[in-house]
Amino acid sequence: MKNKKNKSPIICLCNFITQETIEKAISEGADSLSDIYDKTTAGTGPCGGSCRPTIIKMIKYYLENKRFHPNPKAVKKNRRF
């Protein structure tokens, strides 16, 4: 039986950037969209940045809670963000 590795969800579909990659950048000090763009290229694709709201939620949630939400897309918009 093969060991199934859990794959990190893709947050930026245009550039195939995973949640794990974005979380790593945030935990290493990226605290703005510009930092995320520079470190991962997430949010810079031809779609015009449809993943940016999720990335913003990820950054703000981490800065407020010092941990990552397991499903950043599920974070409610009315959470002081």
Descriptive overview:
The protein has helices spanning 19-27, 33-40, 52-65, and strands at 10-12, 17-18. It is mainly alpha-helical. It has a single domain, classed as Arc Repressor Mutant, subunit A, CATH 1.10.10. It has a two-stranded antiparallel sheet. α1 packs across α2 and α1 (19-27) crosses α3.
Low-confidence stretches: none
Separate helix tally: 3
CATH architecture call: Orthogonal Bundle
| Inertia-based shape | globular
Oligomer: single chain
Q: How many strands in all?
A: 2
Structural class: mainly alpha
Per CATH, the class reads Mainly Alpha
Radius of gyration: 13 Å
Strand order in space, largest sheet: 1-2
Give me the CATH fold name: Arc Repressor Mutant, subunit A
What is the share of helical residues?
A: 25-40%
Roughly what is the average pLDDT, rounded to an integer? 88
Main β sheet profile: 2 strands, antiparallel
Note the beta-strand portion: 5-15%
String of helices and strands: EEHHH
Euclidean distance between termini CA atoms? 44 Å
- Summed up, the domain count is 1
